[in-house]
Amino acid sequence: DIQMTQSPSSLSASVGDRVTITCQASQDISNYLNWYQQKPGKAPKLLIYDASNLETGVPSRFSGSGSGTDFTFTISSLQPEDIATYYCQQYDNLVMYTFGQGTKLEIK
Amino acid sequence: EVQLVQSGAEVKKPGESLKISCKGSGYSFTSYWIGWVRQMPGKGLEWMGIIYPGDSDTRYSPSFQGQVTISADKSISTAYLQWSSLKASDTAMYYCARAAGLIAARHFDYWGQGTLVTVSS
Predict the structure, then answer these.
(1) For the purposes of burial, counting CB atoms within 10 Å of the CB of B98, is it exposed (0-12), middle (13-18) or buried (19 or more)?
(2) Which residues does B contribute to its contact with A (CB < 8 Å)?
(3) HSE (CB half, 13 Å, CA atoms) of B119?
(4) Secondary structure letter of residue A60 according to DSSP
(5) Rounded Cα distance, B119 and B107, in Å
(6) Which residue among B45, B46, B106 places its CB closest to the CB of A91?
(7) Looking at beta carbons, which residues of chain A come within 8 Å of B46?
(8) CA-derived radius of gyration, chain A
(9) C-alpha B5: how far from chain center
């Protein structure tokens, strides 16, 4: 099984800050890495797919990068509505998926 | 408009069976994988398994293999997740999600609203 290590597990930042979350895979996953946002009481929402592609309708302050085993998710300027938990998710060619442990983002 | 609509909340006793559903609309149901994701109270997302309604090809996470059964009825565009004997530890929110991607179904682009399952004596 491919393991995903996401960090940090929680993060406190101010409005306007640049926020970065990382995800590391236990083996090379090419660019098969996605990022989701989950607000309390809601279903997850896809933000970034295939490591760096912005899902339609998602604000451009969200971005992703990386390939192989190391990936980064960035919010360029934190907004109050970005308060949520963020998850990375990998896919392997056996039609198997794994989520990272999540990063809870709070406003300072 | 793509929609996944899940069945309502359930309260069950340990040992009981349960089948929850996820009905897709607004797209070709047989052309996309449908996955199931568990979220235990206050915890993260766990991928359980996935089915391709077109031919019922089904894959399970090793953590859930043998614990649940995933099925689909393409005639009514509905996927199912079922348990034969529930445990208290099955208490969780369960989401279905459509898997999509240009070459392979690598990400989940549409999600159901979730079904809360509570197992308590």
Answers:
(1) buried
(2) 33, 35, 37, 44-47, 50, 59, 61-62, 95, 97, 101, 104-109, 111-114
(3) 17
(4) T
(5) 30
(6) B106
(7) 99
(8) 13
(9) 11
Distance between CA atoms of residues A64 and A52, nearest Å: 4
Name the 3-class secondary structure at B88.
helix
The pairing of strands A10-13 and A103-107 is parallel
Query: What does each C-alpha distance from B12 to A2, A23, B3, B89, B96 come to in angstroms?
Result: 34, 37, 27, 12, 20
Beta strands in B7-105 (DSSP E): 10-12, 18-25, 33-39, 45-52, 57-60, 69-73, 78-83, 92-100
Confidence of residue A72 (pLDDT cuts 50, 70, 90): very high
Sequence letter at residue B56: S
Question: What is the percent of chain A where pLDDT is above 70?
Answer: 100
pLDDT at B27 over 80: yes
Are the Cβ atoms of A91 and B33 closer than 8 angstroms? Answer: no
pLDDT of B17 > 90? The answer is: yes
Q: What is the rounded distance in angstroms from the CA atom of residue B36 to the CA atom of residue B47?
A: 6
CB A7 within 8 A of CB A26: no
The set of residues, in sequence order, having a beta carbon less than 8 Å from that of B44 and lying 6+ positions away, is: A85, A87, A99, A100, A101, A102
Tell whether omega for the bond before A8 is within 30 degrees of 0, i.e. cis: yes
CB contact under 8 A, B45 and A93: no
